[in-house]
Amino acid sequence: MVDHARVLVLGDGDLSFSAALHESAPDLRMVATTFESREELLRRYACAHEHIAALEEAGAIVLHEVDATRLQTFSGGDGTFQRIIFNFPYQAFGGIKGLRRLLGQFFEGARLLLSLDGCIEVALCAGQGGTSLDGARGWAGSWRVPLLAARAQLALI
């Protein structure tokens, strides 16, 4: 990872991933986000306060109530990011079509925040991506990541 890179982490549950990433690479200029409000996050996760404190003390920006499907309106920092990370995106409604819509909307908005040399990383469970590496699940039952990325003018690597 590039020293002093601007990194955006989306939907980081209790912020443990962001805290660990920032600890392992303290030169990052990080914006860590949660979908929940700060109050809901602290109510839901006992360790969230510790992670927020560590991130803010290290100079990271921590934002709450950030919807990864509406990044066109995101105002969490100035400029673009060299790396955008979205770990295990999920929504509890809409089935596979809803999950594809979520990821497609994310890609469309994330593209606008990505630097020319940037990279978007999406962590999915085995079989969800829709690539030849996903095995038996196949294209029909997958999230169809290559197609959704291409529609947003992104390339899957």
Automatic annotation (TrEMBL):
- Domain (25S rRNA (uridine-N(3))-methyltransferase BMT5-like): residue spans on this chain: 8-156
- Record InterPro entries: BMT5-like (IPR019446), SAM-dependent_MTases_sf (IPR029063)
Pfam entry (one): BMT5-like
User: From which domain of life does this come?
Assistant: Eukaryota
Q: Which SUPFAM superfamilies match?
A: S-adenosyl-L-methionine-dependent methyltransferases (SSF53335)
- Name of the protein described by the UniProt record: 25S rRNA (uridine-N(3))-methyltransferase BMT5-like domain-containing protein
Source organism of this protein record: Durusdinium trenchii
